[in-house]
UniProtKB/TrEMBL annotation:
Keyword ATP-binding: no
Stored PANTHER family: ANTI-SIGMA-F FACTOR RSBW, ANTI-SIGMA-F FACTOR RSBW-RELATED
Annotated CDD domains: HATPase_RsbW-like (cd16936)
Domain Histidine kinase/HSP90-like ATPase: from-to ranges: 25-129
GO molecular function, one term: protein serine/threonine kinase activity
Protein name: Anti-sigma regulatory factor (Ser/Thr protein kinase)
InterPro entries per UniProt: Anti-sigma-factor_SerPK, HATPase_C_sf, HATPase_dom
Organism, scientific name: Saccharothrix texasensis
The entry's keywords: Kinase, Serine/threonine-protein kinase, Transferase
Superkingdom: Bacteria
Amino acid sequence: MTLLEEDDGGPRALALELADDVPPLAGVRRWAGDALGDLTDDEVGDCLLVVTELVANAYDHGEAPRRVRLHRSDEPCSVRIEVDDAAPGEVVVGRSRLGHNRGRGMVLVANLSARWGVDRHEAGKTVWAEVLCSYPSSGSGT
């Protein structure tokens, strides 16, 4: 995992380049938890579930290269979680090609986030979700 700071003219984002082979879920959760430490425990928990599901899906259904980003907004208070992968495939809610005991990740994402979606681009797709906060962040801009 490689930590990056992105500045595309909008709010600053924290980004991680993800390894090609094994999903670094514990490391991603630790990184996101540290970055979002000023939120309530419930809000951090919701964000950690969302980031875990989106990163796991990028490994289960996507292709390298992969990247995860966190964007913070104060008005309204929200965290936008974005995960890029190079596969053009569809995002399916409630079904998995990997077995009957799978496929609930996007249902969780849909229920924990205010909204979510998929942005397609030449290099694949970005799956994103926005989790609302109950109070403005400390202005860290991440």
